[in-house]
Design goal:
Keywords: Membrane, Transmembrane, Transmembrane helix. This is Acyltransferase 3 domain-containing protein. The protein has 216 residues and is mostly helical. The protein folds into two domains: 20-130, no CATH class; 132-216, no CATH class. The chain has helices spanning 10-19, 21-28, 34-52, 64-68, 70-79, 92-118, 124-129, 135-157, 167-205, 208-215, and strands at residues 4-7, 162-165. It has a two-stranded antiparallel sheet with strand order 1-2. α8 (135-157) crosses α9. The chain is globular.
Length: 216
């Protein structure tokens, strides 16, 4: 992989977050993820109907091979953007098709994988998804979602000198942001998220008025 040299200054990064058209039109606006929302809801209804109808997973064994192929296809989706890195750039219709289809295809892959795990269609991916360790990051996921962008911007603006960008530096940058985000999310969950969740359970799941009557 070729090594590029970029001058990452705080002014450049701040202007990029504020003025970059791609970031604004693709990542900031809610309707750009509408296809993923619809597919996610549809997959949820599908899993509910399959469980409600008590569909036997043994009758769907033929679809296991499709499920096993979803992770390789998802990896292809990850790295398919490399076609836009080198010149000459692909035609405009390729850009349009790629931008319009990548998110729905990836959402369909992830949704299908989740549904297959819910109905216990296969055991390879399901054993990984149902690993008890995931309970910890799942508790922190919303806090991390709220906080991670702050650490991305904070770390980016500290890069005030010219640096060599390589796969190793990218991995280092990502891990720095992830570690700081998860640490902050842990503190946020302990001090804000968990106490508020306990209060919600107390007020909405406990019949306070009945308890007062019993006391009287």
């Amino acid at each position: 992989m070729s090594i590029d040299i970029h001058d990452q200054t705080s002014r450049f990064v701040l202007s990029w977050f504020k003025n970059d058209a791609t970031l604004h039109h693709v990542y900031k606006r809610g309707h750009t993820n509408l296809a993923s929302y619809i597919i996610g809801m549809a997959m949820g209804y599908l899993a509910y109907d399959l469980q409600k109808d008590k569909v036997d997973p043994k009758n769907l064994r033929m679809y296991r091979y499709m499920v096993w192929g979803m992770v390789p296809v998802a990896l292809i989706c990850f790295y398919s953007g490399i076609i836009f890195y080198d010149s000459p750039s692909p035609p405009m219709y390729v850009h349009l098709l790629y931008a319009g289809l990548l998110k729905p295809v990836f959402a369909l892959l992830i949704g299908s994988l989740v549904v297959s795990s819910v109905i216990r269609l296969e055991d390879l991916y399901r054993s990984i998804i149902e690993w008890r360790f995931w309970r910890i990051p799942s508790q922190l996921s919303y806090s991390a979602y709220l906080l991670h962008f702050f650490f991305v911007r904070k770390y980016a603006v500290t890069l005030t000198s010219t640096r060599v960008v390589s796969p190793w530096t990218v991995m280092y940058d990502v891990h720095i942001v992830v570690v700081h985000t998860m640490l902050a999310a842990t503190v946020f969950w302990l001090l804000v998220d968990a106490p508020l969740a306990n209060l919600r359970q107390y007020f909405f799941k406990t019949n306070i008025f009945e308890e007062k009557k019993k006391v009287k």
